[in-house]
Specification:
Number of helices: 4
Structural class: alpha/beta
CATH superfamily of the largest domain: HAD superfamily/HAD-like
Largest sheet: 4 strands, parallel
Distance between the termini: 50 Å
Strand order of the largest sheet: 3-2-1-4
CATH architecture of the largest domain: 3-Layer(aba) Sandwich
CATH class of the largest domain: Alpha Beta
Number of strands: 4
Helix content: 25-40%
Mean pLDDT: 86
CATH topology of the largest domain: Rossmann fold
Strand content: 5-15%
Number of domains: 2
Length: 136
Amino acid sequence: MEKKLDGKVIAVDFDGVIAEYDTWKGVGVFGKPVQSIQWAMSKLREMGAEIVVHTCRRETQAVVDYLFKNGIEYDYINFSPKNDKLKLSDKKISADIYIDDKGLPFRGEWHQTFIDIMNFRRWGDELGSNAISSKS
């Protein structure tokens, strides 16, 4: 039996999660869709989740066009109805789950988190190429 996601808001980063990304290449320049993104977004919405695409990009209409052209389902861009409902700032999207290629989960313990920060690399980086240097 599949877990239902009714009422859950999932914030999904655009560059590096929806669209492939290795470095900034300019306004309106997007990578190919990440493998299986269409299936995943459709399945999450089918299970009752609301999908918020979050991005630092200012060219919102170009992002909308990209999502439409590539058949990628979503509900909102850089907006969550939870922010209005809870009377929260719009500076951070209120969500139940955040999916981001530069995210690091916090598990309630700072010593391990510090080690995780020092060893962090994005999923698309070569092994160790984006790890933070211990030399400062």
